Amino acid sequence: MTVKEAVTIKGVLFDFSGTLFRIESTSDWLRAVLDARGERLDEAELARCAEGLEAAGALPGGSFPQRMPDELSELWRTRDISGEHHRAAYTGLARQVELPDEGLYDALYDRHMTPDAWSPYPDAGEVLGALRDHGLAVAVVSNIGWDLRPVFRAHGLDPLVDAYVLSYEHGVQKPDARLFRTACEAIGLDPREVLMVGDDQRADGGAVRLGSAVHFVDHLPVHQRPKGLLPVLDRAGITRPSAGPAAAR
What we know:
2 domains, five-stranded parallel beta sheet, alpha/beta, two-stranded antiparallel ribbon, 11 helices, about 10% strand, about 35% helix, Rossmann fold, disordered C terminus
């Protein structure tokens, strides 16, 4: 029996939503858009609309649709290959819910692309900073229909990322191995030297086709997962920091 030689991890690929960042709640999302537009709903109506949008899966990065309308099924399947598909899929889902103002559907979609709609997980800066301090390359590989770089910049994490590989910019979405290969090429590493970290076993698990190791985290609200990323440092062979975060705030 041949003993397989251990491969040193030299770089880490991270998913975005549910891995490094989490979107706000559906009720906060709706409330923020109403406030920005100077509109008001009574609490019962706001709760009704938020519950409907949640069930419809209308918030990108939030819950999956409980029921997929037939007319949106193909668009949903390819939602991350272009900005147009992404917007059409999610505004289409939102339109399954009757809202008091037609303008709210696009306003809600626009809101989710703003940095204020996203929060980094509590240990994201610490983990990214430790990887940087130990000379490991980092890329973000996301199925997405818009440019997430401003979110990283606004939260001070952009200096800790070497490359962004976004599905809509390449017309390819995970689990297609081509997206992971592009990310590995962007950081100059063989896929076998790379660890993929994500929350979706199907999409993010596609990296194993190239020989990459994969580590999964739970897609939970930020306050429920304060240390979910720290095991990544163990997988990368890095001793965990004993003090505060390595990343600049």
